[in-house]
Amino acid sequence: MKRIAVITSGGDSAGMNPTLKSIVEEAKRNGISVTGFLKGYRGIVENNAIEMYFQTVSGIVQRGGTVLKSSRFPEFKELPVQQKAVGNLHNSHIDGLIILGGDGSMRGAMALSKLGIPVVGIPASIDNDLYGTNLSLGVDTSLNMITHCIDIIKDTASSHNRAFVIETMGRASGYLALVGAMATGSEAVLIPEVEYDIESIARRLKLEHDNGRAYSIIVVSEGTGATSDMSDALKTIAKLDTRITVLGHLQRGGSPSVFDRILGFRLGSRAVQTLMDGVSGVMIGLMGSNIAMTPFADVLSHKKIIGERYMKFAKRLSH
Ligand code: ADP
Ligand code: F6P
């Protein structure tokens, strides 16, 4: 193996930069050159690449986002576009490709793998919706940010005896909302995975406020689409002075947490070793305390399930 390539694809997530550093350092230690294609799959198709040296990845561990840039490139779902990428990879003498990204990016990874490119995937997405890893890169940093923001909002919420509906990202996954609600001791949580009853939550909180509760925090996952309905119910049923805060892309930025840095170092070096071992067509992820490999076909045919204890908590706070 003489040359590998790497891309960061889809929504960026904290931990991508430490992973890139680890990939380049592990490759260099083994005499392998590294090409970085810019802006995910778009960079491969448009042949937009940089050579990655030690200097390229020095001083980046503490930076969120990705120095390789990322993009949404829906055209990559089309076979002729994928074939163009394969041609470009061959022309650039790429022996193996490492792809950092979420669920969509792993679909692209499987497509390239089927077309004969040795590919290893690394789960990196704040949504934490990928089967084959307990946590994706960036989830921990995102949760720290969500927790920090909710902690801050509590100051103003308690000063005005208000209710706040906090909307978190996550697409169809409620993981960020659920763990964010757990970590902040929030009063209610709405996630797509669990049936919820907005009116019952509003009635419960009315009673609690009538009995002296100072403020309420209700965390709503964007995937439910229920943010404004929840707010309306708190105003009309609970008669609470209510505000909505959409955390938005604040959840995607910020310096990677220690956890995301260390996970990135482990996944980056293991991805290079996996390619060197002649293994590909797999995503590597964190299972328990170990790094495990899961074939792309399995990753993409299974839905990631929220653990039983977390589900119990969600059910309790959904009514
Ligand atoms: P994420 O990887 O964070 O889930 P996206 O869903 O936007 O983000 O996917 C990232 C990129 O992966 C897309 O812009 C596209 O280039 C590629 N991709 C997504 N779905 C597929 C698919 N079904 N087949 C091939 N490539 C895909
Ligand atoms: O997939 C990561 C994510 O942050 C989702 O949680 C969110 O719905 C989406 O990306 C936002 O995408 P964009 O940055 O393209 O607006």
In DSSP terms, counting alpha (H) and pi (I) runs of 4 or more, how many helices?
11
Main β sheet profile: 7 strands, mixed
**Low-confidence regions:** none
Shape: elongated
For the biggest β-sheet, the strand order reads 3-2-1-4-5-10-11
Ligand types: adenosine-5'-diphosphate, 6-O-phosphono-beta-D-fructofuranose
Report the portion of residues in β strands: 15-25%
- Average pLDDT value? 98
Architecture overview:
- With 319 residues, the chain is α/β, with parallel strands linked by helices.
- The chain contains eleven helices and eleven strands.
- The protein has helices spanning 16-29, 41-45, 79-91, 103-114, 139-160, 175-184, 198-210, 227-236, 258-276, 296-301, 308-316, and strands spanning 3-8, 33-37, 49-52, 96-101, 119-123, 163-168, 188-190, 216-221, 242-246, 282-287, 290-295.
- The protein has a seven-stranded mixed beta sheet with strand order 3-2-1-4-5-10-11, sandwiched between helices. It has a four-stranded parallel beta sheet with strand order 7-8-6-9, sandwiched between helices.
- The radius of gyration is 21 Å and the shape is elongated.
- The model has no long low-confidence stretch (mean pLDDT 98).
- Bound molecules: adenosine-5'-diphosphate and 6-O-phosphono-beta-D-fructofuranose.
- The site of 6-O-phosphono-beta-D-fructofuranose has 11 residues, from loops.
- Adenosine-5'-diphosphate (ADP) is lined by residues 9-11, 40-41, 72-74, 76-77, 101-105, 107-108, 111, 125.
